[in-house]
Automatic annotation (TrEMBL):
InterPro entries: AI-2E-like. It comes from the Bacteria. GO terms for biological process: transmembrane transport. The lineage of its organism: Bacteria, Bacillati, Bacillota, Clostridia, Eubacteriales. It is found in: Membrane. This is Sporulation integral membrane protein YtvI. The keyword Chloroplast does not apply. Pfam families: AI-2E_transport. It comes from Symbiobacterium thermophilum.
Length: 103
């Protein structure tokens, strides 16, 4: 799951392109883009369901994580989002709720 389909598709696309089979390389690139997009959407849905976050929140947290932390943001973005959700749910961070903070 960490490496993903790119470990297969990228070398295959490069090999096809360098051996003169450009049309095949373009087809592979389209398949790779489709697989990557579908994988990103389904992973966001699965992760969101497991931790109780909306899939859009997961995608946004990954995007913002990458913007702020670079490659490590793929991990840090969702972790920070999950931490914030837990703090809001427990009442430690009383924003977006009517609950009063616990003392």
């Amino acid at each position: 799951p960490i490496v993903g389909p790119g470990a297969l598709y990228v070398p295959w696309i490069l090999y096809a392109a360098f051996t003169g089979r450009l049309w095949f390389a373009v087809k592979l690139l389209i398949v790779y883009a489709t697989v990557s997009a579908l994988r990103q959407m389904t992973e966001s849905k699965v992760v969101g369901d497991q931790v109780g976050l909306h899939p859009l929140a997961v995608l946004l947290s990954i995007y913002l994580g990458i913007k702020f932390f670079g490659a490590l943001g793929v991990v840090f973005g969702p972790l920070i989002t999950i931490l914030l959700k837990a703090m809001i749910t427990s009442g430690l961070l009383p924003i977006f709720t009517d609950a009063k903070p616990k003392r």
